[in-house]
Amino acid sequence: MNKNTLSLRTGKLLKSVAAAAAVPLVFIYVLVAKPDFYLINWAGHVILPVAHFVGDVITWPVRALGESFENIYDLANLRAENEKLRMELDALRENQNSCAVAIAENRRLESELDIVHATPQNVIMADVIHDTVAMNHSNFLINKGVFDGVKRGMVVVSIDGIMAGMVVDVGGEFSRVRALNDADSNIAVRIAGDEVYGFLSGDGSATPEIGLFSRPEFKPARGMTVITSNISGVLPNGILVGTMKNERDVSVLQPNAVSRVKVLEFDNNNEYK
């Protein structure tokens, strides 16, 4: 292609661009200086669509380039977000594996320590609506009573199966539960994983005292697990009670530490119904 032909085509393109740019100016001049509504109407239906088309053709490279940059930016953001989500997923998988290992280890220890976490068929879910701690007495109220099947003597445990107390008074729609650290509480217990029996007596403190009698030579130690015993015929065997803080004190669940509990019923053989 010679220079004359290239110059001719360039000149035609420049003239077209100039004509397209002049159309809006002419239209504005007619609208302001010499308003002719027939001319304006004709321009609105013929000239303006043509000018709009020419403008789109002229600005297409710029718009295409802008869209390309925008797509590249979005792609970079998506890659960064995917990388972040991938890292979070790997962390969750690692945490899931750790939880699975911990659950398996916990089940093994519970089996070795004779701790019972099986849920009875007739479990009654309840909310703690008030707790009272005065002098050496510690009680709390739950929002379930006779109308819900609650009876005096039922065992109350936390959601995760730790003993919280026993039902001592029952009304139509509420019940009073005596906590383990209440001065009137005295339950039969034993050391988990061993045949060492005794009684846990409340004294109003967060760590009631345990008295062991089956093996006087046995030396309790910090960290030992204490569970319920059925030797008294009042409680079922194997409900988690607490942990030894030293050779005689046991850390038990406090009434103000629970908001929702389970009320359990067991039969005359000291087994869950």
Overview of the molecule:
This protein has 273 residues and is an alpha+beta fold. The C terminus is likely disordered. The termini are far apart. A six-stranded antiparallel barrel has the order 1-2-5-4-3-12. The chain has a six-stranded antiparallel β-sheet with strand order 8-7-6-9-10-11, with no helix packed on it. The chain is built from two helices and twelve strands; from the N terminus they run ααββββββββββββ. 39% of the residues lie in helices and 24% in strands. The protein folds into two domains: 113 residues, no CATH class; 141 residues, Rod shape-determining protein MreC, domain 1 (Thrombin, subunit H, Beta Barrel), CATH 2.40.10.
Quick synopsis:
The longest helix has 77 residues, at 37-113.
Give the SSE map.
Layout: H1 3-32, H2 37-113, E1 124-134, E2 137-142, E3 155-158, E4 163-170, E5 175-179, E6 186-191, E7 197-201, E8 209-212, E9 225-228, E10 240-244, E11 250-252, E12 260-264
Antiparallel strand pairs: 1-2, 1-12, 2-5, 3-4, 3-12, 4-5, 6-7, 6-9, 7-8, 9-10, 10-11
